[in-house]
Amino acid sequence: MIVEDVRCEPVTDGRRLSAAVRAGTRLPSARLHFTVPGGEDGWLPERGDAFLAALLMPAMSLGEELVVDAPVSARLLRSARTVAAVYAAWWEQLREVRVTAGEVDEARRGPERVGLFFTLGVDSFYSLLGDGEHRAEPGHRPVTDLLFVNFDQHAGPDQDELLGRVRQVAAGTGCRALAVETDVRAFTAPLVRWEDFHGAALAATALALQGLLGRCLIAASFDYRRLPPYGSHPVLDHLWSTEALEVVHDGADATRAQKVARRLARSDLALRNLAVCWRGRPGRNCGACEKCLRTMVALELAGVLPRCATLPAVLDPDRLRSVPVSTADARDAMREAAADAAARGRPDLAQAAAQAADGPGPVPPAAVAR
User: Fold this and answer.
1) Residue 56's domain spans which residues?
2) 78, 291, 335, 366: most buried, per Cβ within 10 A?
3) Which helix (H) or strand (E) holds 3?
4) Strands 246-250 vs 2-11: parallel, antiparallel or unpaired
């Protein structure tokens, strides 16, 4: 797999970093891009780091050497070998491959701004609100930019409304909202599962913005007690760092219920804007899927479910009990919700969540979210 002709160019509404990619017969040649509406000159340097991160796993899936004909961080190039070894250990279909670059850079000083990938979900709100708690600490570098990445290339009124809510949260926390559009997910989808790959996709986006950011946080999906092989992971995320950009896996110190109770329950801004469900329209919680219902359990245990404007105000244990839970990770998360409910003296929710985790049930009628 060859990456070449890396360039940053102005587009109608901002700046675009792109590269030509030539791969084997299973992928057509294409031009991958990271586009920042409103982006400024210098934000997206003409480097190959982002494309190395985005294409390492697909190259391993093809069993092809990855050649990046552009400047690449010496630190990142060294770490790529470790990332590949972890990938191969976790997912047997991936084979370690050689990675080379046209030019290898030495250390550079990075910018001072700090990014946080932000989706309006529990995990990213926990990292954002936690950053606010630490702002007074000596040496702390506060989050300055909330990054919302349009990996699915959604467009239309729903997407505009979702971005509007991200901007409201940014304004309420003294940050800047920054939208990024990329076709990385669509290009790599024939070769890799999103659950395995998304951490690299996030890191690639941060690496594309090395002219703007010196540090970037990826909010943890799992806590330290439950860390399955997963695309974003404390073993992996920091390995995407360069001399100029530190990538940080943040928030694995807490379960979902603890995140809600410790921080989100005290934030009206979070409760007005919480978005956890991506099953239907962008940013619109269905109120009926297992992820919505697990989140409702956490909000109910924290005593704030009626205050959450984006989910139904009442949690029905029968609906929780019968919700389909289709993946092993989701079943583990539902069992965690059951344990949290039992520990908080809610046997009705504990039993319902445990039953949902242990077997399929009938599809519940759609909830009516207010």
Assistant:
1) 2-105
2) 291
3) strand 2-11
4) unpaired
CA distance 60 to 64: 6
Distance CA 180, CA 178 (A): 7
Interatomic CA distance for residues 151 and 198, integer angstroms: 10
The residue whose two tokens read 């304004």 is 171
| Residue 7 covered by a domain | yes
Domain assignment present for residue 208? The answer is yes
* Alpha carbon separation from 285 to 175, 267, 292, 308 (Å, rounded): 25, 19, 7, 11
Whether residue 15 is found in the same domain as residue 124: no
> Among the three residues 105, 138, 160, which one is the final residue of a domain in this structure?
105
Per residue in 102-130, pLDDT tens? Answer: 999 876 777 889 999 999 999 999 999 99
Euclidean distance between CA atoms 252 and 230, whole angstroms: 13
φ, ψ of residue 179 to 5 degrees: the values are -90, 140
Looking at the structure, tell me whether residues 236 and 262 fall in a common domain: no
- The distance between the two most distant Cα atoms of the chain, rounded to a whole number of Å, is 61
Within a domain: residue 266?
Answer: yes
263: in domain: yes
Q: What pLDDT, in 10s, does the model give residues 138-177?
A: 777 899 999 999 998 777 888 888 999 999 999 999 999 9
Q: Reduced to 3 states, what is the DSSP secondary structure of residue 15?
A: strand
In the predicted model, what is the mean pLDDT of residues 20-24? 90
